[in-house]
């Protein structure tokens, strides 16, 4: 666990962040005086105009799209030119740099104060009959590049190498292995394949092993595995520990990362998407974002209802939202809840409002044990761990707490501490905690 809340290290880091932030404000006030309010207004106006222009670029076609794209490109430059015209460009840039440093220090302080969730592992004997499935095309050929087949067989594993020219049912392969006496299942491949085999492992109560040979390896990352060298994952065969993690269930299909609904999930269904992603997205998005095509969704998570969102991401455990990389990381995989992130934007003003982050009106973020996604169409396009599917509405997603035993190397990089959002009020409370009776020092 992390240190005691409000301990000296995080407290002094919080104070330093506030001092640096105050320095940024003082710099602008000193350079611009009362004109600093006008500078702030110009900067905020530029941000909102740019966000609105990006919305028009995505949601319109033809001349309007072209003009909006030009506006989105020129507006930031126009703001900088306005600052330069009154001799305040460098003070403003320096103040922004100081503010970024303050946010970085503040984020570190809040992270240290929150501490790191203790990982619950248990030691178990090495498997006697491990069975691994490997996709030679996954991750641009990592299976061959890291000689994973030979290294796994040298450690006593039975390895089934998929034939890209003749697609195979990986679930059936895993079931046959279990029937033949396998006491561990594992996959070197993408997250979609990981999910299918993980479902079989959970069904039979067997440990599952992840080998980070996919392209993005989101599941491996959140398990704290080495994504640079997938061969290190094989250490789990001889010196490993077990984790209990949750699984997501969409209908009857298991997912380890996410199920996405809405505009993006619909676009990837297009046969042209694989050959020309950018052109297909630009062609399909206007009608999807303005609800002219595609199913109109209704999402229910407990007492919360999200009406007509353009995009919904349901994740096996919530993703962090506190930093630029937050949407790529889950601080926990055993919280017993799904993460729900919904985005609903109907006009340029609402698109600009997304700059408020988690407080934005069009953004919904919550956790729930069950989520129901309904639509005004019989079938709903869904992206499940990178696989494009069509599922009958309504689609029910739920979490299966602690359903999967995962065997990981005892020695591995680990999961970075979650970064909470930089909340300046929380930072102030951390820097200057209120004294309570009986406390000293």
Our measurement of the CA-to-CA distance between the termini, rounded to an integer number of angstroms, reads 24 Å
What is the CA-based Rg, rounded? Answer: 25 Å
* Uncertain parts: 1-5
The H/E string reads HHHHEEHHEHEHEHEEEHHEEEEHEEEEEH
Per DSSP, the total helix count is: 13
Shape: globular
Helix content: 25-40%
Structural class: alpha+beta
Average pLDDT for all residues:
87
Percentage beta strand: 15-25%
By DSSP, the count of extended strands is 17
What is the makeup of the main sheet? 11 strands, mixed
Compact summary:
Helices cover 39% and strands 23% of the residues. The protein is α+β, with helices and mostly antiparallel strands and 441 residues long. Helix 1 (8-32) runs antiparallel to helix 4 (89-114) and helix 1 packs across helix 13.
In words, what does this structure look like?
It is built from 13 helices and 17 strands. The protein is of the alpha+beta class and 441 residues long. Helix 8 links the parallel strand 4 and strand 5 (207-211). The model is unreliable at 1-5 (pLDDT under 50).
């Amino acid at each position: 666990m992390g240190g005691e809340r409000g301990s000296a290290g995080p407290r002094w880091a919080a104070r330093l962040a506030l001092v640096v932030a105050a320095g940024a404000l003082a710099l602008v006030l000193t350079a611009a005086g009362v004109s600093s309010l006008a500078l702030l207004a110009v900067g905020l106006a530029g941000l909102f105009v740019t966000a609105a222009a990006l919305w028009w670029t995505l949601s319109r076609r033809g001349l309007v799209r072209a003009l909006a794209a030009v506006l989105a490109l020129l507006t930031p430059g126009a703001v900088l030119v306005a600052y330069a015209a009154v001799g305040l460009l460098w003070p403003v840039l320096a103040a922004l740099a100081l503010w970024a440093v303050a946010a970085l220090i503040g984020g570190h302080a809040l992270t240290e104060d929150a501490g790191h969730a203790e990982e619950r592992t248990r030691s178990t004997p090495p498997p006697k009959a491990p069975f691994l499935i490997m996709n030679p095309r996954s991750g641009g050929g990592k299976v061959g590049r890291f000689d994973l087949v030979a290294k796994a067989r040298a450690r006593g594993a039975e390895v089934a190498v998929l034939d890209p020219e003749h697609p195979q049912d990986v679930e059936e392969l895993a079931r046959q292995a279990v029937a033949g006496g396998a006491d561990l299942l594992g996959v070197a491949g993408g997250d979609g394949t990981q999910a299918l085999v993980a479902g079989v492992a959970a069904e039979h109560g067997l440990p599952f092993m992840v080998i980070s040979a996919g392209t993005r390896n989101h599941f491996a990352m959140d398990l704290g595995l080495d994504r640079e060298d997938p061969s290190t994952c094989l250490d789990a065969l001889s010196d490993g520990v077990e984790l209990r993690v949750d699984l997501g269930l969409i209908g009857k299909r298991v997912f380890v990362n996410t199920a996405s609904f809405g505009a993006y999930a619909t676009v990837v269904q297009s046969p042209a998407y694989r050959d020309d992603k950018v052109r297909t997205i630009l062609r399909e998005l206007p009608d999807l974002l303005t609800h002219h095509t595609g199913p109109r969704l209704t999402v229910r998570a407990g007492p919360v209802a999200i009406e007509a969102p353009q995009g919904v991401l349901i994740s096996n455990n919530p993703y962090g939202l506190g930093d630029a990389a937050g949407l790529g990381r889950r601080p926990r995989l055993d919280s017993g809840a799904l993460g729900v992130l919904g985005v609903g934007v109907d006009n340029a003003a609402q698109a600009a409002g997304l700059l408020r982050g988690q407080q934005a009106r069009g953004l919904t973020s919550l956790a729930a044990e069950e989520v129901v996604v309904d639509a005004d169409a019989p079938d709903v396009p869904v992206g499940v761990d990178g696989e494009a599917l069509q599922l009958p509405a309504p689609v029910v997603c739920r979490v299966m707490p602690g359903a999967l035993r995962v065997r990981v190397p005892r020695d591995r990089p680990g999961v970075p501490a979650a970064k909470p959002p930089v909340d300046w009020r929380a930072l102030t409370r951390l820097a200057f905690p209120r004294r309570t009776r009986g406390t000293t020092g």
